[in-house]
Amino acid sequence: MMKKFKDTLLNCVFFTFLMFITFPAFAVRYYGDITEAELRTLPPFCTSWAKKDRELLARHQKRYDFRNPQHLCPGLNALNNAQKMFNDKRAQGYALSVAVSELSYVLEAKNNQFALRPTVLRYRGRAYEMQGNLSKAIADYEEAIRLKSNYTQAHIGLIDIYLKMGNKKEARKRLEQALEKKPNSKLLLKKKRQIKSMSQ
Predict the structure, then answer these.
(1) Highest-confidence range of 23-27, 57-61, 113-117, 147-151, by mean pLDDT?
(2) Which of 90, 93, 119, 151 is the most exposed place for a label (fewest CB within 10 A)?
(3) All structural domains of the chain with their residue ranges
(4) pLDDT above 70 as % of the chain
């Protein structure tokens, strides 16, 4: 009887494990359900969207010129969460896939020429970078820079990718191009010191 109990217990453990690895959706979340703490890390329009304040959302849309908050805000929230998931690669991978999917919807939807487009491109580029898809990340950062040539964070993202690839020559080239646009940028000057120290 004891043997039968142990066999049953082992079978239960085995099938529980099998279900866990076969159905990852058991552990996923909807990143459109945004907590108060998460809202504090997102743009103001995400608060008006999450709290269904249509009047404030309309004012935010007029001020920030963005599209599809029902995709943009969950995408940004997923990316923020992914950047904190150091010890759970599986959950991080899911969050990054959500971020790429939601931000891609915003970028590829009709009437997709809007003021925040460079910002959304930069965030999707970051998600691609974290996924290890460096070619797509580079494309997004470059497109963001093409639309907004003095976009420091996009320049930094691009420089960091070339450093990650071990291409210091291209990183220096991109840094000099960025400094031509914003010669007094503290972030760019800090990056210049970092690259210089790597060469010593």
Answers:
(1) 147-151
(2) 90
(3) 20-148
(4) 86
Q: Which residues contact 5 (CB under 8 A, 6 or more apart)?
A: none
Q: Which two tokens stand for residue 170?
A: 């291209």
Where do we find the tokens 């997102």? 42
Average pLDDT rounded to a whole number, residues 149-162 = 97
> Among all chains, which residue has been given the structure tokens 């058991």?
26
pLDDT at site 105 = 95
> Dihedral through CA 180, CA 145, CA 67, CA 65, nearest 10?
20
CB-neighbour burial class of residue 136 (10 A; exposed 0-12, middle 13-18, buried 19+): middle
Contact present, 140 and 124 (Cβ < 8 Å): yes
Task: Give pLDDT tens digits for 55-83.
Answer: 999 999 888 888 799 999 999 999 999 99
CB 47 within 8 A of CB 39: yes
Nearest to 71 by CA among 35, 32, 124: 32
Distance (Å, whole) CA 183 – CA 63: 29
Residues in the chain: 200
Distance CA 70, CA 49 (A): 7
For residues 29 and 32, what is the distance between their CA atoms, to the nearest angstrom? 9
* Helix/strand/coil percentages in the chain, nearest 5: 75, 0, 25
C-alpha dist (Å) from residue 14 to 2, 23, 183? 18, 14, 60
